[in-house]
Write a structure and sequence with these properties.
This protein has helices at residues 2-19, 80-94, 97-102, 123-139, 141-144, 159-175, 190-193, 200-207, 214-220, 223-236, 243-260, 271-288, 294-298, 301-319, 334-343, 368-371, 418-424, 426-429, 433-437; strands spanning 54-57, 60-72, 151-155, 187-188, 327-332, 377-385, 395-401, 404-406, 416-417. By secondary structure, the protein is α/β, with parallel strands linked by helices. Strand 3, helix 6 (159-175) and strand 4 (187-188) form a beta-alpha-beta unit. Helix 2 (80-94) packs across helix 11, helix 4 (123-139) crosses helix 6 and helix 9 packs antiparallel against helix 12. The termini are far apart.
Length: 446
């Protein structure tokens, strides 16, 4: 019996070594922007009611009076281009008897992602935002209670942002006992939330420019990705596999595991491969949305200037005893939030991300799996401090990324006086979108 058990264990170890750790071990925050929110957060985290309502600043007690919050949509189905790549690759592999012998699941595999649902919010995404609505409702209960009518909601034209908003609102009202449960009616505001769609300079020089992210391209066809592609090919029994096909397998693993809680495609990968894929996608986001080009963050001008306009409006009305909006909650995309993070100077590594510095960048701040997973959030809280000998009331701000306070570059601390905050970000307060994006230039001059 002992010898039989020993043999079984040896065979199991050999299987794991050859075919990965099993998909359940892959639920970790390493999938860049495709990472489900609660793979990197504790869904059962204890949240003390009103734990973010008060802060101490300069020996004064300050209470939040406004929360400006933007959230990325929740976990979704793949986009149409990836769904098509998945179908093509699946059909190619299914036609190869040797591959079928090694991975029998392919014999009956059909693409589980309908093209008609491309990019749509999933059940998991709904659950994420319902949970987030409850979590924010608990952290800021005193701010929201009795003031649900004084909250603005904004979305983009995409179904996934509108459905995320509805789920968030349901969770928020579920937490605030006795509050209204009317259906939320968000404003569709693509001008603020999809600024990347209308920025001429960005579209031509970055988004549609194949040479705008050379580091990503170099890494995509470099030694690390070639090694992974060949390793997957060996597992499949193929001579070669290209980088695009390797990425498709990675996407299949990520999306199936996230949305269906299981994926046999993950058995073609190993845990160490996920770090390489993550860096590949971080390079893309860094150069196409982040610090790689100044227009990437400059184009977030409509959103950023509107934030300061609202904060100034709240301060003015609070000083004059007028009603004001206690929150502005908007739902957008990774393409929205990454430029905003960059504009505020968050997650800025001293050394740029490049194709040849993967090893030295393992502790990088710009890690999209952690900063902008599905359902990521960025909040700015405005706090009014108790009266003092100073005739002018003091206001301070805090920044929250994925529910947690972060150090604000404007002052190097988690709490900044609003005057200092606004002065530091003057370029965001007074930006000119048309000039930044060169929208007034003839197209051939861009």
């Amino acid at each position: 019996m002992d010898s039989l058990l020993f043999l079984i264990l040896c065979l199991l170890s050999l299987f794991i070594a050859n075919y990965g750790m099993g998909s359940t071990d892959f639920r970790i925050p390493l999938y860049s922007t495709k990472t489900p929110y609660f793979w990197g957060k504790d869904i059962d985290e204890f949240i003390r009611e009103d734990e973010e309502i008060w802060v101490d600043y300069d020996n004064k007690e300050c209470q939040i009076i406004h929360l400006n919050l933007i959230l990325r949509h929740g976990s979704r189905s793949p986009t149409l281009s990836w769904i098509k790549k998945m179908t093509v690759l699946g059909n190619i592999l299914k036609s190869n008897p040797e591959v079928i012998e090694r991975f029998p699941f392919l014999n009956s595999w059909e693409n589980p992602f309908p093209e008609t649902r491309a990019g749509h919010l999933s059940d998991l995404g709904e659950d994420e935002h319902f949970s987030l609505g409850r979590r924010f409702g608990r952290r800021f209960s005193l701010l929201f209670t009795g003031d649900l009518e004084n909250i603005l909601y904004g979305v983009t034209y995409k179904q996934r942002t509108q459905a995320s908003c509805a789920s968030f609102y349901e969770g928020l009202t579920d937490t605030l006992d006795g509050e209204s449960r009317k259906n939320v009616k968000p404003a569709i505001n693509d001008k603020l939330l999809r600024f990347f769609d209308t920025c001429s300079k960005y579209i031509k020089s970055v988004e549609n420019n194949k040479t705008a992210a050379p580091e990503h391209t170099s890494f995509k066809y470099g030694a690390e990705m070639q090694r992974i592609a060949q390793k997957i090919a060996d597992k499949l029994g193929l001579k070669t596999l290209n980088s695009e096909e390797a990425q498709t397998i990675h996407h299949l693993c990520a999306f199936e595991l996230a949305l269906f809680d299981k994926s046999d495609w993950c058995d073609m990968l190993e845990k160490e491969d996920l770090f390489i894929f993550e860096y590949l996608y971080d390079l893309k986001q860094y150069w196409k949305r982040g610090y790689g080009h100044s227009v990437n963050w400059g184009m977030s001008c409509p959103f950023n200037s509107n934030v300061f306009k609202q904060l100034n409006d709240v301060i003015y009305k609070a000083r004059n005893g007028e009603d004001y909006n206690v929150a502005d909650i908007q739902f957008a995309h990774a393409e929205t939030i990454i430029p905003i993070f960059t504009a505020f100077g968050l997650f800025n590594d001293s050394v740029p991300l490049k194709a040849d510095n993967y090893e030295s960048q393992k502790e990088r701040q710009f890690r999209t799996s952690k900063i902008v997973p599905m359902s990521a959030s960025f909040g700015i809280g405005l706090y009014q401090c108790e009266a003092s000998e100073d005739p002018e009331e003091v206001y301070v701000v805090r920044m929250f990324v994925n529910e947690k306070p972060v150090v604000i570059p404007a002052c190097g601390q988690e709490i900044c006086e609003y005057k200092q905050f606004m002065k530091y970000y003057d370029d965001l307060v007074n930006c000119n979108y048309a000039e930044i994006c060169e929208n007034n230039k003839p197209h051939d001059e861009l």
